Amino acid sequence: MPNKRYNLKRDKRYLELLAQSFPTVAEASTEIINLQAILNLPKGTEHFLADIHGEHQAFLHVLKNASGNIKRKVNELYGSELTLNQKREFCSLIYYPEEKLEIIKAKGEDTHAWYIDTIQRLVTLCREVSSKYTRSKVRKSLPVDFSYIIQELLHENTDRPSKKTYVNVIIETIISTGRADDFIIAISNVIQRLIIDELHILGDVYDRGPGAHIIMDTLRQYHSWDIQWGNHDVLWMGACVGNTACICNVIRLSLRYANLSTLEDGYGINMMPLATFAMETYGDDPCEEFMPRVIGKKGDDQKMTRLTAQMHKAISVLQFKAEAEIIKRHPHWKMDDRCMLNLVDYEKGTITIDGKEYALKSNHFPTVDPANPSAFTEEELLLIKRLRHSFKMSEKLAKHMRSMLRHGSMYAVCNGNLLYHAAIPLNEDGTLREVEVVSGHTFSGRELLDAIDILIRTAFQQDADQEDKQYAKDYFMYLWCGPESPLFNKSKMATFERYFIDDHDVHHEDKGYYFKMRDDEEVADRILDAFGVTGDARHIINGHVPVHAAEGENPIKANGKLMVIDGGFSQPYHKTTGIAGYTLVYHSRGFQLVQHAPFTSAAEAIMNGTDIKSTTQIVEMSAHRMLVGDTDRGSELKQQVVDLKELLYAYRHGWVKEQE
């Protein structure tokens, strides 16, 4: 009998509900056997990525190669059997099967022999990567057209001559019926699917790069993923619900990098009203300080570049006004010093910051009333109305933001790892800082992130109290640039200063205490304790701030308890970091941190078999191979086993009746 004293009234109600899923002793027993078997399978591989910033080609490639995990498996299986070039070509085929097949067939070589060797190797690799899953889970991941055939090939023992002949006939038949290409594409996709069990995105899908919408489309189709929101993600969430400051920031960042692909092509945001307004308002303004940082390929249309700069300035001025409007509504944010237009002397062309006067690089503000600098003109109000309507009516943007909410959160605790995007606000002594989220209500640590999570969701709720909902919408701006926001955690966002002031001293954004103390093991332990993360091998994993590897900075901090994995996908960061950042793989034998060189292009990877050059660093290896039973999922399954055993006891003692 199970070691517990039953509360019959309570337990019987629960067991009767459980009996609806397992109505007989046989079915309950079978499920116990199944769960016990799963508990003893190797732990699935987790893949951690951060700060993708719209670089969809690099993201898709890292997803396809699982941060080198496929290459590692190929080396383990074919280390001496294949040459380095053959292994490179084989991996490239797995990553890009459709495109690679076209190139191989165009060479006009003996494709029949190549098909036989390639299919056999793909089956062997697929058998290896599927070995840590149940047959049921593997079967569910298979394409309908080839499900039966792949199952046969995966589970037959080719050591026996009769079975080897059977397998060879299957492969020959696949080729002779003209299905070899389709089969290779199908099994390559299965390998990509099975190599990673869970994908964790530690924030910042959006901004800078051209394909954030493509990344979101990919994630929505991915088998298992979660995201811990970053400051750029909440900026787009704020834009989606109509926060004017967020809308202006989103557009400004797109114009700053001369990249409107996500806005226009991805979400159908109409930029024509802004273009018209900018040409009329800033037609005689050189807008030199607003020239896009990334102009593009040589030979770009200079008129388009100039228009981009005019639009850039127009939306920036709108942003400064919109931010001031929101800041004035919420004095407890203590951000009055960021109402930058109020600090300008428009006659002298100067600005006074912290008692010091600075000359402005430009003093052309035709829409600013010096007596009321943050007031919008009638033309600006009409423009804002049109832009807000365009964002709120974008069906695809709304769909992607719903996915962000469904799969996302401010933090996650998974298998002994605490995941969040940027920071946990701290005091100077390293203790958790109390932050006023709503006027008069302060929170710290886990409670702080929980309160913010609720606030974010409130902004999207149709039936929420209107006052609460309006505050929630406004709060997206604070999350983006507020000094105590756990997604920013800096003294200020010096946008105005960078555009208009030459003195680099005022460009400096002082980082919060978290970034100054994150190498302190005691601080890391304090944060882990606050979030209830236990165990000897617990870690914090976050992104947000690029690791300056070129200067010798180590992404592993706090004696191995904190890992920074800013993926460095964003091209503008590459000169600063010297690399394209880090990703993390956590498989059944431990952690591997992968340092990437910048990605060239998918076309080069397909044509030449080149891969992202990466260096793998062993962070922490387990003394024994971790099983499902060692994971959070394992704890859930163990409880299910306990519950099912209680159901069996209830069946056998007549508390619950078996169903016919």
Question: What's the helix and strand layout?
Answer:
Elements: H1 8-21, H2 25-39, E1 46-49, H3 56-65, H4 69-78, H5 84-95, H6 97-106, H7 111-129, H8 135-140, H9 147-155, H10 161-176, H11 180-195, E2 198-201, H12 212-221, E3 225-228, H13 231-240, H14 244-256, H15 261-266, H16 272-281, H17 302-329, E4 344-345, E5 350-353, E6 356-359, H18 378-392, H19 395-407, E7 408-409, E8 411-414, E9 417-420, E10 435-438, E11 441-443, H20 445-458, H21 466-481, H22 495-500, H23 513-517, H24 521-530, E12 539-542, E13 556-557, E14 562-564, H25 574-577, E15 582-587, E16 590-596, H26 602-608, E17 614-621, H27 632-652
Parallel strand pairs: 1-2, 2-3, 3-7, 9-12, 12-14
Antiparallel strand pairs: 1-15, 4-5, 5-6, 8-9, 10-11, 13-14, 15-16, 16-17
Helix pairs in contact: 1-27, 2-27, 4-5, 5-6, 7-9, 7-11, 13-14, 13-19, 13-21, 14-17, 16-17, 20-21
